[in-house]
Amino acid sequence: MKKITIAIDGFSSCGKSTMAKMLAKEVGYIYVDTGAMYRAVTLFAMRNGMIAPNGEVNRDELKQKMQTLRVEFKLNEQTGRAETYLNGENVENEIRGMEVSSHVSAIAAIDFVRTALVEQQQRMGRDKGIVMDGRDIGTVVFPDAELKVFVTASAEIRAQRRFDELKGKGVEANFDEILNNVQQRDYIDSHREVSPLRKADDAIELDNGELTIAQQLQWLVERFEERVAQ
Ligand SMILES: Nc1ncnc2c1ncn2[C@@H]1O[C@H](COP(=O)(O)OP(=O)(O)OP(=O)(O)O)[C@@H](O)[C@H]1O
Ligand SMILES: Nc1ccn([C@@H]2O[C@H](COP(=O)(O)O)[C@@H](O)[C@H]2O)c(=O)n1
To answer: Which regions form coiled coils (predicted)?
Structure first.
């Protein structure tokens, strides 16, 4: 069967990675979570004092240090899931916290950060057979992807899902803080100058606000089967 490239973009916490991961597993493709890469760069900047208390980023210092920064994914044999490594250290849990979430969109708006990560993402997808999720996959990273999906749901539904997820993990969570973060990231991601979040003209839009996880997977598998048959 021919291998294709699948780009899944959309707003924060709408279920992109859930869909992408499940499809990749179902069809035996590689899955790449590009948000994790921007989060790892953000953690690096935070740890190295490059983000001031007012949120301002020391771009010159980050630019200088970008070459020393290595973001990789490694399979956790126990969970069967890929985890994010920053310069050899497993940072999978740390990059998901609210502190990284509150700075990541500012870091992701920086041109040289995007150039470096997009190059790496394009290398990962060179041989196709990949499902990649993010904000600019269908527009910038793989504009020729055979299947592009743009996922939406209301900010309240998305925040509620994230809130439920954190509660389920026993993590202290505040709904209003999560909603505020989701809305803020959507705004910055959609309004930045470089590669703003937008639906590619040839992407299929999916509002999954009323869908279950099983229903959205079924929808995606059907779209995949249509594309590989073409
Ligand atoms: N259709 C759905 N119904 C209910 N919950 C869902 C659905 N799809 C995903 N979820 C849940 O919503 C939460 C966010 O999903 P996920 O992490 O896949 O979103 P995302 O778009 O990749 O987020 P981010 O942009 O922050 O990386 C998770 O807890 C996931 O299990
Ligand atoms: N292709 C991408 C992916 C992500 N971003 C930025 O990273 C943030 C975190 O992404 P999550 O998918 O983990 O929520 C996101 O809010 C964007 O600012 C990006 O710019 N491009």
So the answer is: none
